[in-house]
Amino acid sequence: MYDPNKAHYVVATCIIVKDGKYLIAKRSANEKAFPNKWTVPGGKLEVSDYSKRKEDTSAGQWYNVCETLLRREVMEEVGLNIKNIGYITSLSFIRPDKIPALVLSFYADHDDGDVKLCKDLTEYKWVTLEEAKEYDLIDGIYEEIDMLDNYLKGKELGVWKKK
């Protein structure tokens, strides 16, 4: 039986790494959640992200669902191919339209392609961790980039903490 208390959008975001810098992009003024804020590419899971593929097990299961979602969303939003996907953290929030969302934050290396923004994004920058401080990022994204920056420098990934 459907339980609205357990229903969420599932969203995956991706901090893309290229030459020691991180891709951020500015959301348009028309976005329902976080208009005009800087963010990283990502989007909502759709049933078609897995259901149109052949099942991976005889039990009717699909693997690599988030990875498929990330590749689709990164291509749609910024026109890039990615590789070496890894997990960073998770968060939940209730959107302005009252829909709860579970966000899974990942990172990946830039594989190929040049940035081509979708209509929902207005600008982009490749930034260092220090440069990221200068942008009006969605709350929490800077800390995710900081976690990843530390991890890429050989430290533990750790857990998200407000800076």
In what range is the share of β-strand residues? 25-35%
Q: What composes the largest sheet? A: 7 strands, mixed
Structural class: alpha+beta
SSE pattern, N- to C-terminal = EEEEHHEEEHH
Radius of gyration: 16 Å
Shape: globular
Draw up the topology in text.
Layout: E1 9-18, E2 21-27, E3 38-39, E4 42-44, H1 48-51, H2 65-78, E5 81-94, E6 100-112, E7 121-127, H3 129-132, H4 141-152
Textual characterization of the structure:
This protein is of the alpha+beta class. It has one domain (4-152): Nucleoside Triphosphate Pyrophosphohydrolase (Alpha-Beta Complex), CATH 3.90.79. It contains four helices and seven strands, in the order ββββααβββαα. Strands 1, 2, 3, 4, 5, 6 and 7 form a seven-stranded mixed β-sheet that branches. A hairpin with a 5-residue loop joins strand 5 (81-94) and strand 6. The longest helix is centred in the middle third of the chain and has 14 residues, at 65-78. The radius of gyration is 16 Å and the shape is globular. The protein starts with 8 loop residues before the first strand and ends in an 11-residue tail after the last helix. The mean pLDDT is 96.
Key attributes of the depicted protein:
alpha+beta, seven-stranded mixed beta sheet, 4 helices, Nucleoside Triphosphate Pyrophosphohydrolase, 21% helix
Structure in a nutshell:
This protein has 163 residues and is of the alpha+beta class. The chain has helices at residues 48-51, 65-78, 129-132, 141-152, and strands at residues 9-18, 21-27, 38-39, 42-44, 81-94, 100-112, 121-127. The chain has one domain: Nucleoside Triphosphate Pyrophosphohydrolase (Alpha-Beta Complex).
